[in-house]
Design a protein that fits this description.
By secondary structure, the protein is of the alpha+beta class. 41% of the residues lie in helices and 21% in strands. α1 packs antiparallel against α2. The protein is elongated.
């Protein structure tokens, strides 16, 4: 039985660009239809019915008509605007980063309810004021789960031996996680990971997000885990996210401003 030409779905805008004189083409992320390309005709005109509703970093209820190249947006209603996450430039930049990771990990027209719920929850957390770095690490770890590449943080990825807390280990993303000292691989000075960072990686895998929000950790450990997860996703997605450069610039500017005020 053919799919109906008209359909309605929840959606989050991942990317968008202007097309022609008044149209806009978007990548929509939906729970049941996955990632799809859609066109909003005339949306850039002042009197457009769609107006400013088709914005990123919001959950929308979208009516679409199936088309040959792009589905056509016919109606839009904002379900959750998440306006507070836009109050901070770092939070906004993080939201763009999370959207890009979702876009890079999705296939078009494949159901992705788990990943949709993950991105939606991450935006809720940013909107509620949770530390953006903590949200990003939680999202990265669970995104890896959704992609089927869960990092190994308990056993050696080569010999499958359970790691002891007092032994040396290495973080080797191309192999999938931890490598023990007995197995051949890169030297510890190139792939080292502190025990505190390993504990935090395990926490991101196992603790609920409310417990993670309450952790008190040295900034150096947070930075080490950030680097470890970036390396892991770079291997899994085959390149760095483009939005990381902007996110890092925003954070450096914020750190400099904080230092100037001190």
């Amino acid at each position: 039985m053919p799919s109906p030409r008209l359909y309605v779905t929840d959606a989050i805008v991942l990317t968008r660009f202007d097309y022609g004189e008044a149209d806009r083409i978007m990548t929509l992320f939906t729970p049941t239809h996955g990632k799809l390309k859609a066109i909003a005709k005339g949306v850039r005109r002042t009197k457009s019915r769609l107006g400013g509703s088709l914005e990123p970093m919001a959950e929308l209820r979208v009516a679409l008509a199936r088309g040959r190249t792009f589905d056509v947006v016919t109606q839009v209603q904002v379900s959750h605007a998440w306006l507070r996450l836009r109050d901070s430039l770092e939070s906004t930049a993080t939201a763009w980063y999370l959207a890009e990771l979702a876009d890079r990990s999705l296939e078009e027209r494949h159901e992705a309810e788990g990943l949709y719920a993950l991105l939606r929850r991450a935006y809720e957390l940013l909107d509620a004021g949770m530390d953006s770095g903590r949200v990003a690490r939680w999202y990265e770890m669970h995104l890896a789960d959704e992609m089927g590449v869960r990092p190994e943080v308990d056993r050696c990825v080569e010999c499958d031996r359970m790691m002891e807390a007092d032994e040396q280990f290495r973080w080797v993303p191309p192999l999938g996680g931890l490598l023990c000292s007995r197995c051949p691989g890169p030297p510890a000075d190139r792939a080292g990971l502190s025990l505190e960072a390993l504990k935090l990686l395990k926490a991101y895998q196992r603790l609920d997000v409310e417990a993670l929000a309450g952790l008190r950790l040295p900034p150096a450990v947070e930075r080490e885990v950030e680097g470890a997860m970036r390396d892991f996703l770079r291997v899994s997605l085959e390149r760095d996210a483009r939005s990381l450069q902007f996110l890092d610039e925003v954070r450096r500017a914020g750190d400099q401003l904080t230092g100037d005020r001190a």
